[in-house]
């Protein structure tokens, strides 16, 4: 009998931040997003660093096929105009304020913001 890896697979997340919306330099912001992913138990698959929302549509369209279940962002300002679109596919976690914007569970039904300490999924 062989020894196989029995670790539980962590849920997948992606992160993004817009440099034009951030108060922090890129290394600081990516560090903050990495720490958020770690504290929530996500496997962070990547971070999109953007100056605008030009690359958002293809990224968001890829979430379902790639198994991404959450998007991590510094604040909703980084998602202006996209929040309802992305919540069709994933939960959105924010650093400021800390918490989660749940994925829409049914068409036309939106759950509100859930404050969090960042220690649960």
Provide a brief overview of the structure.
The protein has helices at 26-40, 56-66, 83-86, and strands at 12-18, 43-50, 68-73, 91-94, 99-101, 114-115. The protein is an alpha/beta fold and 121 residues long.
What can you see in these coordinates?
The chain has 121 residues and is of the alpha/beta class. The chain has helices spanning 26-40, 56-66, 83-86, and strands at 12-18, 43-50, 68-73, 91-94, 99-101, 114-115. The protein has a 6-stranded mixed beta sheet. Strand 1 (12-18), helix 1 (26-40) and strand 2 form a beta-alpha-beta unit. The longest helix is centred in the first third of the chain and has 15 residues, at 26-40. It is globular and about 35 Å long. The mean pLDDT is 89.
Topology (SSEs and partners):
Layout: E1 12-18, H1 26-40, E2 43-50, H2 56-66, E3 68-73, H3 83-86, E4 91-94, E5 99-101, E6 114-115
Parallel strand pairs: 1-2, 1-3, 3-4
Antiparallel strand pairs: 4-5, 5-6
